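Re: folding output
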Amino acid sequence: MPVFYKVDPSDIRKQEGSNFGEALAKHEKKFQDNKEKVQRWRAALTEAASLAGWPFKEDGNEMQLIEEIVQDISQALPPPPPPTPPRVKPLAYRKLIRTKHLFGQLESICPPDGRDKIVLYTTSLGAVLRTYQACNDVRAALTNFGVMFSERDVSWEHEGYLKELRELMIDKGREATMPPRLFVKGRYVGGSEEVFKILEEGWFRQVLQHNSSSTSCKDCGETGF
């Protein structure tokens, strides 16, 4: 729909006067070898001037005109589609939170001396702020939950925890070797996103209460001791 900005639609339609008549006459002289071009311009102006648009006079309020245009277009448009639900990271956690057997579906990966423990790999180096903050968040969440856990700081090179974590995550790619990483009684829970997902859904207590003596882990060679 056209906006007739400081022009009268009738002048456009009639193509008379100094604004349109004289200008088009000059173009006809300029394009004597292609007068059909000017005729197409005349037809387009006539068609546009015949449409119902928004007139704007010399003393008009531009802000008010813009608000009217936005309102009219908004009413003419169809309603927007409903928002797309947030994408849940696959992993199997959507399935996990719907089942009563959460612990059994966690992958069996057991840190050294971690079969009956909660083991959290973290870093105390703040070089990568996002990683450092995620470690602090998971540590605080476990502390607030009131559980005892073994924290293994991968920045302590003399302890060998970084090498230990890399060996545990050897088949999962580089991202999985970045702390925080949580293991519960020989089962791999995941990073901060997965930990908080289980905490928010209220399944973490079930994981903690699981009797690890009925399971085995890779570190003990599946022998159960």
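--- second protein (sequence, then structure) ---
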Amino acid sequence: MTEVTGTVDFRVGKETYKTWYKVVGDLTSGIRPLVTLHGGPGMSHVYMQSHAEIFTKYNIPVVFYDQLGTGRSTHITDKGADFWTPELFIDELNNLLADLGIKDDFDLLGHSWGGMLAADYASAQQRPGLRRLVIANAAPSLNLWEQSMHHWLNKFPGDFREMLRRHERDGTTSSKEYQRGMKEFYNKHTCQVIPWPAELDQSFADMDENPTVYTTMFGTSEFNLTGSLITWDVTDRLDRISCPTLVCNGHEEGAQDFVVEPFIEKIPKVKWVKFKKTHIPFYEDKEYYFETIGAFLMPT
């Protein structure tokens, strides 16, 4: 398997940062590449690495990268909410596409926050080079996501909910009790493969190492959204997404059916697929997931 890693310069104002990337496969092969957008915001690409399966099975080159502020890309801790915006990450994506020479012909797959970013990217304006779009386990508005997460949280015992909220009020979310509680919630509604794959643990560890992006854009947790994305909503422009789009979700996750419904109703050329279990189907329903993605990217 051919792998190439590197960095590209990403200029923001007077500052120049580094975006780290990895390409699995050959971008000069003539086969349209798949670009992946990881979740978070602030997780690293590591948990997405199983998408190299797309190259192994279908010979489609796959591009991974760490978004600014996490993983092997430049870490920044001295910027506020006016810096950490969806527009920043859209600019970073466009910069990477141009540097790799694929801006005129590529497919895009975003998972979780990456799916939100993908929906924002595709609906903000026409993207002639974007051929096919996959929005995986994501929401078209943060308000819908928060409603969904509270729905699942309310199914836990009252003392459990109060424990989480107490730590969030007191600013003690680094405590072992809170961390154990969040892991219990995540085991039910984020990934039901127990123990978690090492790659997923690593991406969470990368976010914990530098939580700037997550806390600035989201807030303390999925249940306490206080960040700059609190009013983020692209529902009213989803009809502008002109390329064929695959939307997928799971049964017990944040992207419940009512959350993804605007995608299904408003995107003109849309297909909806539902996977087993929760939020990370490429671990929980791996075979069917990659067959579905491959069939969508390579229609007969």
